[in-house]
Specification:
By secondary structure, the protein is of the alpha+beta class. The protein is built from 6 helices and 13 strands. The strands form 3 sheets. Strands 1-3-2-6-5-4 form a 6-stranded mixed barrel. Strand 4 and strand 5 form a beta hairpin. The longest helix has 27 residues.
Length: 249
C-alpha cells in the first residue's frame, strides 16, 4: 500500500511568506517533473515529519494528493533546521509509469550472526554500503534490498554483482565497477602489556629516586664548599678537617 501525502497549492511566495508558513505549522515545498509544470505547495509539518521517520517514505513511489488530485511522486530532497529539528523545505518529483527512475534503495543485512565468520571465528560484520543506486520502472522499485551474509568467513565479502535484485531492478555501476557491500573483519586484539606500555610515560622523562639522589648530594657538597669558602674569608684560615683516627696496633 502506497503512502499518501496531502498538500495544497501555495500562493504566497518569497522568504517572508515561507517564514510565516513555518510559524503556522506548515512546510513549503515544490513538485516538479513529468509532463506538468512545477507547482509550489505547502504541507502539514506534523504529518510530514511522521512520514520522514518511515524508511519506506524515502525510497518508494508516493501518492501526492494536491487539492484532491492524486499524482505519483518520489521524495527528492528535504532540508532540516540545523538544531530545532523542523522540516524547512521539501521537493517531490513526478514519475511516469513507462519511464525508468534512478533511486537510492536502503540495504537490509541478514544472517550475519549465524555466518561462520561470526559464529565460529569471532569476527565482526562490517557494512561498507548502507544503500544502493538502482534504476528501474516505478512499479518495480523495491522498498529495500536484502544482503545475505550467512556464508561469509573472516576476510570474505559480498559484492554488488552478487546481490539478488528484484526483477527489473539494475544497479547503477561504472564500467568494470563491483564495489564491496559487506564483509566480516577480524576484531583487533589489544593485550594487557600493550595497554600498559601505551599508557606509561617514557622513563627518560621522569627522573628516578636513584637519579635524583646524586643531584641532591652534589647540591649539598656545593653548599659545603661555599660555607667553607665563606669561613675562610671571615677568619682568615680555612676550616680545619677533623683529625683522622689512628688504627690500633
Amino acid at each position: 500500500m502506497r503512502i499518501e501525502i496531502n498538500a495544497r497549492k501555495r500562493e504566497a511566495q518569497g522568504t517572508g511568506a515561507s517564514r510565516r508558513l513555518r510559524r503556522s505549522g506548515n512546510v513549503p515545498g515544490i513538485v516538479y517533473g513529468g509532463s506538468g509544470e512545477a507547482v509550489t505547495i505547502e504541507l502539514n509539518h506534523k504529518e510530514l515529519y511522521q512520514h520522514l521517520t518511515n524508511e519506506k517514505f524515502h525510497a518508494s513511489i508516493l501518492t501526492l494528493k494536491l487539492d484532491g488530485k492524486a499524482e505519483d511522486v518520489l521524495l527528492r530532497a528535504f532540508n532540516m533546521h540545523p538544531y530545532k529539528g523542523h522540516v524547512q523545505h521539501i521537493d517531490f518529483q513526478r514519475v511516469s509509469k513507462d519511464k525508468k527512475i534512478h533511486m537510492k534503495v536502503p540495504l537490509h543485512f541478514i544472517n550475519a550472526e549465524v555466518s561462520p565468520g561470526v559464529k565460529e571465528q569471532g569476527g565482526i560484520p562490517n557494512h561498507v554500503l548502507n544503500e544502493l543506486d538502482v534504476t528501474c520502472l516505478p512499479d518495480d522499485l523495491p522498498g529495500f534490498i536484502e544482503v545475505d551474509m550467512g556464508q561469509l568467513t573472516i576476510g570474505h565479502s559480498v559484492h554488488v554483482k552478487e546481490l539478488k535484485l528484484p526483477k527489473g531492478v539494475e544497479p547503477v555501476l561504472h564500467k568494470g565497477e563491483n564495489p564491496v557491500v559487506a564483509t566480516i573483519i577480524q576484531p583487533v586484539l589489544i593485550t594487557e602489556e600493550e595497554t600498559t606500555a601505551a599508557e606509561a610515560v617514557p622513563a627518560a622523562e621522569v627522573p628516578t629516586t636513584e637519579q635524583a639522589a646524586p643531584d641532591k648530594a652534589a647540591d649539598a657538597a656545593a653548599g659545603g664548599d661555599k660555607a667553607g669558602a665563606k669561613g675562610a674569608d671571615k677568619g682568615g684560615k680555612p676550616a680545619e678537617k677533623p683529625a683522622e683516627k689512628k688504627e690500633k696496633k
